[in-house]
Amino acid sequence: MRWMWIDRVVELVPARRIVTIKNVSLAEEHLHDHFVDDPDRGLPACPIMPASLVLEGVAQSAGTLVGHAERFKEKVVLAKVSRAEIRRDVGPGCTLRYTAEIERMDTVGASTRATIELFDHARPTDGYVPIGEVEMMFSHLDNNMGQAGKSGEAFPEHNFVFGDSFKTLLRTSGIAIPE
Known about the structure:
It is a single chain. The chain is α+β, with helices and mostly antiparallel strands. The protein has four helices and six strands, in the order ββααββββαα. A six-stranded antiparallel beta sheet has the order 1-2-4-5-6-3. It starts with 7 loop residues before the first strand and ends in a 7-residue tail after the last helix.
């Protein structure tokens, strides 16, 4: 993973459940463009994290759970978002909590279900508030495409999905990395 949209793994029950968090900070580049002020209409800047990046955080969390179940031997890629609902904008100063569970898993891939919760540090007494649900399917790339798959595409032997940044995230979260 080149861009990380999760900051920490707070719970991992192998092959069953993962809980991760993402702290949203005004220091993140994408917030400065989404949305800038519009003086002609009298609108101030309204920095929010794009829903697509919130969804990517869910995918990275659920994909980590699926990959960990097979000791990261498989190249796990997102195959389908079956359903996604995000009911609230996320801005700087908030913490997202993603909880993903495996519903089904086999040699072809896995289906997962996840919830998104928001902690707004400006309203700490509210605690974590549910703001979304996501259902995703993941593919075990090598099992479905082979080394010279049906598309004629040859994939590298090394696991390009779970790279060094990802391993650092796991280590700093206290998760042992299978060798």
